[in-house]
Amino acid sequence: MTISVIIPACEAQATIERALTSLFRQSVADWEAIIVADDHLDYAAFLSAKGIADPRLKFASTGRVRSGCHHARNIGFNFITGAYVTQLDADDELSSDRFETLKPLAETYGAAADNLLMLDDETGAILGKVMGETADLTQLDLAAFMKLNAPLVPLIRRDHVLKREPGIEFSEDVVANLQLINRIGILPVTASSSYVYRIHSHSMASTSGASERFEQGYSDYIERLETGDGFGLTATHRRIAADGLNAKRSLNRAFMEAQKAEPGLSFQAFVGRM
Protein backbone atom coordinates (compact mmCIF):
# COMPACT_ATOMS: atom_id res chain seq x y z
CA MET A 1 0.00 0.00 0.00
CA THR A 2 1.11 3.59 -0.64
CA ILE A 3 -0.32 5.20 2.51
CA SER A 4 -0.69 3.65 5.96
CA VAL A 5 -3.21 5.27 8.33
CA ILE A 6 -3.09 4.46 12.04
CA ILE A 7 -6.41 4.83 13.87
CA PRO A 8 -6.38 4.48 17.68
CA ALA A 9 -9.85 3.45 18.84
CA CYS A 10 -11.23 3.63 22.35
CA GLU A 11 -15.00 3.47 22.80
CA ALA A 12 -15.22 4.69 19.20
CA GLN A 13 -18.43 2.90 18.23
CA ALA A 14 -20.35 6.13 17.61
CA THR A 15 -17.75 7.80 15.39
CA ILE A 16 -15.49 5.29 13.66
CA GLU A 17 -17.87 4.77 10.73
CA ARG A 18 -17.64 8.49 9.93
CA ALA A 19 -13.85 8.37 10.07
CA LEU A 20 -13.70 5.31 7.81
CA THR A 21 -16.21 6.78 5.36
CA SER A 22 -13.81 9.68 4.85
CA LEU A 23 -11.10 7.14 3.98
CA PHE A 24 -13.32 5.21 1.60
CA ARG A 25 -14.01 8.40 -0.39
CA GLN A 26 -10.32 9.30 -0.86
CA SER A 27 -9.40 10.05 -4.47
CA VAL A 28 -6.21 8.05 -3.81
CA ALA A 29 -7.49 4.56 -3.07
CA ASP A 30 -4.13 2.91 -2.42
CA TRP A 31 -4.16 3.05 1.38
CA GLU A 32 -4.44 0.78 4.38
CA ALA A 33 -5.87 1.57 7.81
CA ILE A 34 -4.66 -0.07 11.00
CA ILE A 35 -7.39 0.20 13.63
CA VAL A 36 -5.83 -0.27 17.06
CA ALA A 37 -8.33 -1.09 19.81
CA ASP A 38 -7.48 0.40 23.19
CA ASP A 39 -10.65 -0.88 24.86
CA HIS A 40 -10.72 -4.66 24.17
CA LEU A 41 -13.47 -4.19 21.56
CA ASP A 42 -13.31 -6.41 18.46
CA TYR A 43 -13.65 -3.65 15.87
CA ALA A 44 -13.49 -6.11 12.97
CA ALA A 45 -16.62 -7.83 14.25
CA PHE A 46 -18.26 -4.53 15.18
CA LEU A 47 -17.76 -3.09 11.69
CA SER A 48 -18.67 -6.33 9.95
CA ALA A 49 -22.01 -6.33 11.76
CA LYS A 50 -22.64 -2.92 10.21
CA GLY A 51 -21.78 -4.15 6.72
CA ILE A 52 -18.31 -2.57 6.67
CA ALA A 53 -15.67 -4.93 5.34
CA ASP A 54 -12.69 -3.89 3.25
CA PRO A 55 -9.37 -5.69 2.67
CA ARG A 56 -7.57 -2.40 3.30
CA LEU A 57 -8.66 -2.48 6.95
CA LYS A 58 -6.32 -4.16 9.45
CA PHE A 59 -6.98 -4.68 13.13
CA ALA A 60 -4.76 -4.73 16.18
CA SER A 61 -5.08 -4.18 19.91
CA THR A 62 -3.04 -2.70 22.72
CA GLY A 63 -4.32 -5.52 24.92
CA ARG A 64 -5.19 -2.87 27.46
CA VAL A 65 -7.91 -0.30 28.20
CA ARG A 66 -7.17 3.42 27.83
CA SER A 67 -3.41 2.95 27.62
CA GLY A 68 -3.28 6.13 25.53
CA CYS A 69 -3.13 7.26 21.92
CA HIS A 70 0.68 7.27 21.95
CA HIS A 71 0.75 3.59 22.92
CA ALA A 72 -1.95 2.64 20.42
CA ARG A 73 -0.12 4.45 17.62
CA ASN A 74 3.10 2.65 18.49
CA ILE A 75 1.30 -0.69 18.30
CA GLY A 76 -0.04 0.36 14.90
CA PHE A 77 3.46 1.14 13.63
CA ASN A 78 4.25 -2.58 13.83
CA PHE A 79 1.73 -3.28 11.05
CA ILE A 80 2.36 -0.53 8.51
CA THR A 81 3.46 -1.42 4.98
CA GLY A 82 3.01 1.94 3.26
CA ALA A 83 5.61 4.28 1.81
CA TYR A 84 3.84 7.10 3.69
CA VAL A 85 2.34 7.11 7.17
CA THR A 86 -0.28 9.28 8.84
CA GLN A 87 -2.86 9.12 11.61
CA LEU A 88 -6.59 9.61 11.92
CA ASP A 89 -8.38 9.85 15.23
CA ALA A 90 -11.50 7.70 15.33
CA ASP A 91 -13.72 10.75 15.87
CA ASP A 92 -12.20 12.91 13.10
CA GLU A 93 -12.48 12.85 9.31
CA LEU A 94 -10.62 13.73 6.12
CA SER A 95 -11.56 15.57 2.95
CA SER A 96 -11.59 13.38 -0.16
CA ASP A 97 -8.50 15.02 -1.72
CA ARG A 98 -6.23 14.87 1.35
CA PHE A 99 -3.90 12.11 0.17
CA GLU A 100 -3.87 13.42 -3.39
CA THR A 101 -2.83 16.87 -2.16
CA LEU A 102 -0.29 15.92 0.51
CA LYS A 103 1.49 12.95 -1.08
CA PRO A 104 3.50 14.93 -3.69
CA LEU A 105 4.57 17.42 -1.02
CA ALA A 106 5.54 14.65 1.39
CA GLU A 107 7.56 12.99 -1.35
CA THR A 108 9.51 16.22 -1.94
CA TYR A 109 9.91 17.50 1.63
CA GLY A 110 9.71 14.29 3.67
CA ALA A 111 6.32 15.23 5.18
CA ALA A 112 3.42 17.61 4.64
CA ALA A 113 0.42 18.83 6.63
CA ASP A 114 -2.72 20.85 6.04
CA ASN A 115 -4.36 23.89 7.62
CA LEU A 116 -6.36 21.70 9.99
CA LEU A 117 -9.98 22.73 10.60
CA MET A 118 -11.36 22.59 14.15
CA LEU A 119 -15.06 21.91 14.70
CA ASP A 120 -17.25 21.78 17.80
CA ASP A 121 -18.51 18.19 17.58
CA GLU A 122 -21.71 18.95 19.50
CA THR A 123 -22.82 22.00 17.52
CA GLY A 124 -20.90 21.69 14.26
CA ALA A 125 -19.63 25.26 14.72
CA ILE A 126 -16.29 26.09 13.13
CA LEU A 127 -13.78 26.96 15.86
CA GLY A 128 -11.00 28.00 13.52
CA LYS A 129 -8.04 26.76 11.53
CA VAL A 130 -4.65 25.94 12.99
CA MET A 131 -2.88 28.47 10.73
CA GLY A 132 -5.75 30.94 10.50
CA GLU A 133 -6.76 32.00 7.01
CA THR A 134 -3.90 31.51 4.56
CA ALA A 135 -3.79 31.78 0.78
CA ASP A 136 -0.58 29.94 -0.06
CA LEU A 137 1.57 27.04 1.02
CA THR A 138 3.34 27.83 4.31
CA GLN A 139 6.91 26.71 4.91
CA LEU A 140 6.84 26.01 8.64
CA ASP A 141 10.10 25.96 10.59
CA LEU A 142 10.36 24.94 14.24
CA ALA A 143 10.02 28.47 15.65
CA ALA A 144 6.81 29.05 13.66
CA PHE A 145 5.46 25.64 14.64
CA MET A 146 5.92 26.39 18.34
CA LYS A 147 3.58 29.39 18.02
CA LEU A 148 0.62 27.21 16.99
CA ASN A 149 -2.11 26.45 19.52
CA ALA A 150 -3.73 23.53 17.72
CA PRO A 151 -2.41 20.25 16.29
CA LEU A 152 -0.95 19.41 12.92
CA VAL A 153 -1.46 15.95 11.42
CA PRO A 154 1.25 15.37 8.82
CA LEU A 155 1.56 12.75 6.12
CA ILE A 156 5.11 11.47 6.57
CA ARG A 157 7.41 9.72 4.13
CA ARG A 158 8.35 6.34 5.56
CA ASP A 159 12.06 7.14 5.98
CA HIS A 160 11.17 9.98 8.36
CA VAL A 161 8.69 8.06 10.50
CA LEU A 162 9.54 7.51 14.18
CA LYS A 163 7.52 5.79 16.86
CA ARG A 164 6.02 8.04 19.52
CA GLU A 165 8.00 8.72 22.67
CA PRO A 166 6.92 6.15 25.30
CA GLY A 167 5.03 7.48 28.29
CA ILE A 168 4.07 10.82 26.73
CA GLU A 169 0.33 11.40 26.41
CA PHE A 170 -0.36 15.12 26.88
CA SER A 171 0.79 17.08 23.84
CA GLU A 172 2.35 13.92 22.43
CA ASP A 173 1.59 15.24 18.95
CA VAL A 174 3.66 18.35 19.72
CA VAL A 175 6.66 16.22 20.70
CA ALA A 176 6.25 14.04 17.60
CA ASN A 177 6.13 17.08 15.32
CA LEU A 178 9.13 18.65 17.08
CA GLN A 179 11.11 15.55 16.21
CA LEU A 180 9.75 15.50 12.66
CA ILE A 181 10.66 19.12 11.89
CA ASN A 182 14.07 18.53 13.48
CA ARG A 183 14.62 15.78 10.88
CA ILE A 184 13.24 17.47 7.77
CA GLY A 185 13.94 21.15 8.55
CA ILE A 186 10.80 22.64 7.00
CA LEU A 187 7.24 21.29 7.12
CA PRO A 188 5.02 22.47 4.24
CA VAL A 189 1.44 23.24 5.29
CA THR A 190 -1.26 23.68 2.66
CA ALA A 191 -3.75 26.55 2.75
CA SER A 192 -6.55 24.02 2.30
CA SER A 193 -8.07 22.23 5.30
CA SER A 194 -8.19 18.51 4.60
CA TYR A 195 -8.27 17.24 8.20
CA VAL A 196 -11.37 17.92 10.30
CA TYR A 197 -10.45 17.87 13.99
CA ARG A 198 -13.56 17.48 16.12
CA ILE A 199 -13.48 18.86 19.66
CA HIS A 200 -16.01 17.62 22.19
CA SER A 201 -16.69 17.78 25.89
CA HIS A 202 -14.78 14.56 26.61
CA SER A 203 -11.72 15.52 24.55
CA MET A 204 -8.53 15.24 26.58
CA ALA A 205 -8.08 19.01 26.69
CA SER A 206 -11.64 19.47 27.96
CA THR A 207 -11.66 16.98 30.83
CA SER A 208 -11.45 17.98 34.47
CA GLY A 209 -7.90 18.68 35.56
CA ALA A 210 -6.58 18.88 31.98
CA SER A 211 -4.89 22.25 32.52
CA GLU A 212 -3.04 20.93 35.55
CA ARG A 213 -1.88 17.90 33.60
CA PHE A 214 -0.72 20.09 30.72
CA GLU A 215 1.14 22.25 33.25
CA GLN A 216 2.99 19.18 34.51
CA GLY A 217 3.59 17.91 30.99
CA TYR A 218 5.06 21.17 29.75
CA SER A 219 7.28 21.41 32.82
CA ASP A 220 8.55 17.86 32.32
CA TYR A 221 9.25 18.44 28.62
CA ILE A 222 11.07 21.73 29.27
CA GLU A 223 13.29 20.02 31.83
CA ARG A 224 14.02 17.21 29.38
CA LEU A 225 14.92 19.74 26.68
CA GLU A 226 17.14 21.78 28.97
CA THR A 227 18.89 19.07 30.99
CA GLY A 228 17.92 15.69 29.52
CA ASP A 229 18.12 13.96 26.16
CA GLY A 230 16.25 16.83 24.45
CA PHE A 231 14.10 14.32 22.52
CA GLY A 232 17.04 13.92 20.13
CA LEU A 233 16.79 17.51 18.83
CA THR A 234 19.78 19.56 17.73
CA ALA A 235 21.08 22.11 20.25
CA THR A 236 19.50 24.98 18.32
CA HIS A 237 16.15 23.23 18.08
CA ARG A 238 16.26 22.32 21.76
CA ARG A 239 16.48 26.01 22.64
CA ILE A 240 13.68 26.94 20.24
CA ALA A 241 11.47 24.12 21.55
CA ALA A 242 12.13 25.02 25.20
CA ASP A 243 11.27 28.67 24.54
CA GLY A 244 8.11 27.63 22.71
CA LEU A 245 7.00 25.29 25.49
CA ASN A 246 7.65 27.97 28.07
CA ALA A 247 5.30 30.22 26.10
CA LYS A 248 2.69 27.43 25.93
CA ARG A 249 2.99 26.87 29.67
CA SER A 250 2.48 30.60 30.29
CA LEU A 251 -0.59 30.55 28.05
CA ASN A 252 -1.94 27.52 29.90
CA ARG A 253 -1.40 29.31 33.23
CA ALA A 254 -3.28 32.36 31.93
CA PHE A 255 -6.09 30.08 30.81
CA MET A 256 -6.30 28.50 34.26
CA GLU A 257 -6.62 31.96 35.80
CA ALA A 258 -9.34 32.91 33.31
CA GLN A 259 -11.22 29.71 34.10
CA LYS A 260 -11.46 30.70 37.75
CA ALA A 261 -13.69 33.60 36.72
CA GLU A 262 -15.41 31.65 33.92
CA PRO A 263 -15.55 27.94 34.83
CA GLY A 264 -17.15 27.01 31.51
CA LEU A 265 -14.53 28.75 29.37
CA SER A 266 -12.90 26.51 26.75
CA PHE A 267 -9.29 26.80 25.71
CA GLN A 268 -10.29 27.48 22.09
CA ALA A 269 -12.58 30.34 23.16
CA PHE A 270 -9.85 31.73 25.41
CA VAL A 271 -7.26 31.68 22.63
CA GLY A 272 -9.79 33.22 20.23
CA ARG A 273 -9.98 36.33 22.43
CA MET A 274 -6.27 37.02 22.14
Jot down its keywords.
single chain, 274 residues, eight-stranded mixed β-sheet, four-stranded mixed β-sheet, 9 helices, 12 strands
Describe the secondary structure blueprint for this structure:
Layout: E1 3-9, H1 16-24, E2 31-37, H2 43-49, E3 57-61, H3 69-77, E4 84-87, E5 93-94, H4 98-109, E6 111-114, E7 117-120, E8 126-129, E9 138-140, H5 142-145, E10 155-157, H6 172-184, E11 187-190, E12 195-199, H7 210-227, H8 235-261, H9 267-272
Parallel strand pairs: 1-2, 1-4, 2-3, 6-11, 7-12
Antiparallel strand pairs: 4-10, 5-12, 6-10, 7-8, 9-11
Task: Describe this entry's structure for a reader.
By secondary structure, the chain is α/β, with parallel strands linked by helices. Among the domains are: 1-94, Spore Coat Polysaccharide Biosynthesis Protein SpsA, Chain A; 205-272. Helix content is 38%, strand content 19%. It contains nine helices and twelve strands. It has helices spanning 16-24, 43-49, 69-77, 98-109, 142-145, 172-184, 210-227, 235-261, 267-272; strands at residues 3-9, 31-37, 57-61, 84-87, 93-94, 111-114, 117-120, 126-129, 138-140, 155-157, 187-190, 195-199. The chain has an eight-stranded mixed beta sheet, with helices on both faces. Strands 5-12-7-8 form a four-stranded mixed beta sheet. A hairpin with a 5-residue loop joins strand 7 and strand 8.
In helices, the fraction of residues equals 25-40%
User: Strand percentage, roughly?
Assistant: 15-25%
Which oligomeric state applies?
A: single chain
**Named CATH architecture of the domain at 1-94:** Alpha-Beta Complex
Average pLDDT works out at: 94
Outline: globular
Described by strand count, sense and barrel closure, the largest sheet is: 8 strands, mixed
User: Low-confidence segments, ≥5 residues, pLDDT <50?
Assistant: none
Discrete helix count: 9
Count of strand segments: 12
What is the CATH topology descriptor of the domain at 1-94? Spore Coat Polysaccharide Biosynthesis Protein SpsA, Chain A
Question: Order of strands in the sheet with the most strands?
Answer: 3-2-1-4-10-6-11-9
Question: Rg from C-alpha positions?
Answer: 18 Å
Name the helix and strand elements from N-terminus to C-terminus, one letter apiece. Answer: EHEHEHEEHEEEEHEHEEHHH
CATH homolog superfamily of the domain at 1-94: Spore Coat Polysaccharide Biosynthesis Protein SpsA, Chain A
The first-level CATH class name of the domain at 1-94: Alpha Beta
Global structural class: alpha/beta
Distance between the termini: 44 Å
